[in-house]
Amino acid sequence: MNIENTKAQMRKGVLEFCILSVLKEKDAYTSEILDTLKNAKLLVVEGTIYPLLTRLKNDGLLNYRWEESTSGPPRKYYGLTEIGQTFLRELDGTWTELSDAVNLITNQK
To answer: Boundaries of each Transcription regulator PadR N-terminal domain copy (predicted)?
Structure first.
C-alpha cells in the first residue's frame, strides 16, 4: 500500500473546505490562497487549485473580480458568494462532527 497516495487523498478531501475558509474573511487572488495553504503546511500546486477554483465558481460558491496590479498583469480576486458562505457554514459543522468522531476513535486506548 502506498502511504503517499493515501495522504494525498486525505489532503484532497479537505482542500475545498480550506479554500473556502481562506476566503471567509476577505477576497484573495490565487497566489495569496496558495501561500496561506503553504503556510499551514497544506502543499498544493497551481495545477490543482485553478480547476478547483473554477469548479467552485461554476457551482455558485465563489465569484471573482479583476483588479489592476502595480507589479504586473491584473489579478483575479476570488470571494465567497452568499451561497458559498452558507455552504462553508455547513462544511464547518460537518468538519467539527467528523473531526470529533475521528479523534474519539483514534484516541481510544
So the answer is: 19-90
Quick check: 89 and 104 in contact, CB under 8 A? no
Contacts 24+ apart (CB under 8 A), 28-32: 28/77, 28/78, 29/67, 29/75, 29/76, 29/77, 29/78, 30/76, 30/78
The CATH number of 14-105 is 1.10.10.10
Convert the pLDDT of each residue in 52-93 to its tens digit: 999 999 999 999 999 998 888 999 999 999 999 999 999 999
**pTM as predicted:** 0.87
Q: What is the pLDDT of residues 94-109, one digit of tens each?
A: 999 999 999 999 997 5
Residue 13 grid cell: 478531501
